[in-house]
Write a structure and sequence with these properties.
By secondary structure, the chain is an alpha/beta fold. The protein is built from 7 helices and 4 strands. A 4-stranded mixed beta sheet has the order 1-2-4-3.
């Protein structure tokens, strides 16, 4: 897993300029946190039957972020019809993961600026031109470089990270 993340981070890094002279000025990373929308969904869906949860997930998450919730982003090379199966499988397993996901999601609000601030302090000329997404990846990845809207983006699957990475590893995971 660490090797996959290291390769992903390398591929993401080579897609970005590495010094400020390559762009007008060193820029902070654009971070897109999809988790608040997921939590709105979960609050509405958690006590509903699976069929209602599937409908709500589509209405509240997939249609809000169609550039993310497609097979070509989450699982390149798979058929688009697999997305519905992924969502159903995730929702069936979600109750056991929700507490850990919530802790991680809540910690992003305070921890992520610290992690990124430390990285930018260590590498002040680094210019980030691609987006970083925090999302429910439906089990597809903990961290991966994928094309979103035709541009390289770094995806962090909060659902996977919450289960496989201890909290004391998060700083290293997010900035490597």
């Amino acid at each position: 897993m660490r090797a996959v993340l290291a390769v992903s981070a390398y591929l993401f890094a080579v897609a970005m300029p590495v010094c400020a002279s390559e762009v007008s000025e060193a820029a902070p990373c654009r971070v897109v946190n999809l988790m608040p929308q997921f939590w709105r969904f979960w609050d509405a869906a958690k006590n509903q039957p699976l069929s209602t949860q599937l409908s709500l997930f589509n209405d509240m998450v997939v249609t809000k972020y169609p550039e993310i919730y497609q097979e070509s982003v989450l699982r390149p090379g798979h058929d688009e019809s697999d997305l519905k199966t992924q969502i159903a499988n995730f929702l069936a397993e979600a109750p056991a993961k929700i507490a850990a996901m919530r802790r991680l999601s809540d910690s992003l609000e305070t921890g992520l600026p610290l992690y990124l601030g430390g990285f930018q302090k260590a590498f002040p000329d680094f210019a980030c031109k691609n987006s970083i997404y925090f999302l429910v990846a439906l089990g597809a990845c903990s961290g991966s470089v994928r094309a979103v809207g035709g541009q390289p983006a770094l995806l962090f699957g909060v659902d996977v990270i919450a289960v496989i990475h201890p909290p004391d590893e998060l700083g290293a995971l997010f900035v490597h």
